[in-house]
Amino acid sequence: ELARSDAAPIVARGRCTERLAGAEAYLPILDALETALEHDATGTLRTLLVRVAPSWALLLGRDAASAAETAGVLASQERLKREMVALLEAASRRAPVALFLDHLHWADASTVDLLAYLGARLDRMRLLVLATCREAELQAAQHPFLAVRRELAAHGRAREVGVAHLGEDDVADYVARTYPGNAFPACFARAVHARTGGNPLFVADVLRWLGARGIIAEEGGRWTLVRELAAIDRELPDSARSMIERRLALLDDGERRLLAAAAVQGATFDAATVAAILGADVADVEEQLMVLDKVWAFVRRTDEGRYPDGSHAVRYRFVHALYL
Length: 324
Fold this sequence. Notes:
The protein is an alpha/beta fold. 52% of the residues lie in helices and 13% in strands.
């Protein structure tokens, strides 16, 4: 319906932050309202906000409001939810509304509760809610959005769309678009893909980092490789290193020991060898690897077969060479 409408949609974008994770109530919702109001050329949305959602209007102007007034509004959770539904119903009668919330794994409980409330009333408004989140961080924190997502999905009101990793051809296409007319060797995109596992964020970060370090540069109007490609293997961008360290910090000691043992074999490994290194039961190791695959996406199961002695063999590979 959003696509079929003649009216330009109202787009509201809000972002959760790690620094304020769970600390400030409704932070991404308030952020989204502010961005929508910035693009409200006719003032229609602002008029609706004041008329049907005065509590939200007060929160948006909380710098001028007293602390007591702000605290009083926040204490009225039910009123805030009712007003938000009223605002979205009124706004979506004029134009479809798209609410985009980024990094929902850092959202506060009040925001999640509001999303659950909205989700149960979607048939009353032309509203599309798009939210991004990292599954691993949701699971590690046992975030309240997990339960809300299950409930909404059970009633056909939510759908999860996974972001696939880029294939080698996709990386080559991205490199060509980012550095048009380049003179990189044929192995360049292959090396970037192998090092990043096709993770879109890592691919972009590695390419930016290669440019900042002078490993690739523009010469005579063409982008070229001016230093050895082996630099990709020796060093890492700070952004990628930081993300890896944060993800590893979320694992428990046993999971980190398992990954360290697996890395001894290299990019690909098998559960039985890891179990032997750790002195652990193979079944227990396979169970941990399943979690590291399905939840954390550190590894991927590749195949299974039999060892020469007839015993069962399950093989995995690290998703990104950056994790090694």
